[in-house]
Amino acid sequence: MMVIKVAVFDDNKPRRNGLQLLIDSCEGMKCTAVYPDCRNVVDHLSDNRPHVVLMDIDMPNVNGIEGVILIKKYHPDIKILMQTVFEEDSKIFASICAGADGYILKKTTPEKIIESIREVMAGGAPMTPNVASQVLSLFKKQNKIPPAEQFDLSERELEILSFLVQGLSYKMIAEKCFISYNTVNSHVKNIYKKLQVNSVAEAVSKAIKEQIVL
Prior knowledge:
- By secondary structure, this protein is α/β, with parallel strands linked by helices.
- The protein has helices at residues 13-24, 41-48, 64-74, 89-98, 110-121, 129-141, 155-165, 170-177, 181-195, 200-210, and strands spanning 4-9, 29-35, 52-56, 79-84, 102-105.
- A 5-stranded parallel β-sheet has the order 2-1-3-4-5, with helices on both faces.
- Helix 7 packs across helix 10 (200-210).
- Mean pLDDT is 85; it is low at 142-147.
């Protein structure tokens, strides 16, 4: 059984320690390192090589958004799950556009944190419902929305892309669309090809930046 290795970046020491204990208590998961900020993040992760990073946004010295940019530049295979006490549009979008793979609030339950780590590792893009709601609300405030035909996305592909933006897993999308998991996977591959991206995070980021879905 594969063990998911997780690194934690958080400037709050009790929370860092709590997350470490939570992760280490879960079968098939191990917290390999904790850090108070993103100074030397590239070197840290070169030595540590986690599968998933739990990243606080607001930290001193080098913050989480800057950390995401560096990680995605030098370690693009590492999944990044953002955590914050804030629900500000600018920080949500800055995180996603920097390449974050998911976004949850710190008040998220321990069970949901672990579920989100597993989901992002499986290729999903977890978001807490209120964050997803804010993302969609911001879409609706924008008027300059290029036609979907520009990317040659079918109605089903647009529907699935919208669900990805909302943070739904492949399994949840399959249930909502009454199709198989493999069919969802096939549609997502087509979406990647048409948007010229290589991951869920890149697809979500492009959907946001290009305002492809409402």
